[in-house]
Amino acid sequence: MFDKYCIKSGDSLASIARVYNTTVDNLKDINNVEYPEMLRAGMDIVVPKGSEDYFEYYKIENGDTLFSIARKYNINPELLSLFNGLEIEDYIHSGQDILIPKSGYGYYMTKEGDTLELVSNKFDTNIDVLLRENRTIYLLGGQLMVHKK
Asked: Which one of 17, 64, 106, 111 has the fewest beta carbons within 10 angstroms of its own beta carbon?
């Protein structure tokens, strides 16, 4: 579900996000990047790979909240916030794009110290299936793992 990308001269998180059909906030979150200006040509970052199978985009409208969007799509608001690198009480604004997890999949955001065995147990599957469904696994804190239900 993720791949490695070597930053080239002239790249920005915005240009990389466009190429990989994601958001700058998502790239910052999955790479634990607080200060994007620290990224340099030649450095590797993690980028989504084939993630369009697991989510869809939603453009925030006036009056939307994470809770109202979660209710509309019948998903857990905490999953929605995690999926987008947000805190549940974060302000969202009209015109902002967020990712909506598709149904039919289980999602888990890794934590420091997770192992393949722990994650596969959370999904009630085996490690081979987990590896097949998530092509690149770093097991860093904050990596999104997916399992088809």
From this structure: 111
Distance CA(78)–CA(36), nearest Å, equals 26
For residues 146 and 51, give the distance between their C-alpha atoms in angstroms, rounded to a whole number. 10
- Where does 55-101 sit in CATH, by number? 3.10.350.10
Q: Which CATH number fits domain 105-148: 3.40.30.10, 2.40.50.180, 3.20.20.70, 3.10.350.10?
A: 3.10.350.10
Is there a contact between 99 and 129 (Cβ–Cβ < 8 Å)?
no
Q: Distances from the Cα of 144 to the Cαs of 68, 81, 93, 141, in angstroms?
A: 23, 12, 24, 9
SS3 12: coil
Cα distance between the two ends of the chain: 16
Please answer whether residues 114 and 27 qualify as being in contact, where contact means their C-beta atoms are separated by less than 8 angstroms.
Answer: no
CATH architecture for segment(s) 2-49: Roll (3.10)
- pLDDT (tens digit per residue) in 67-97: 999 999 999 999 898 888 888 888 898 988 8
Those residues of the chain that have pLDDT short of 70 are: 1-2, 49-53, 135
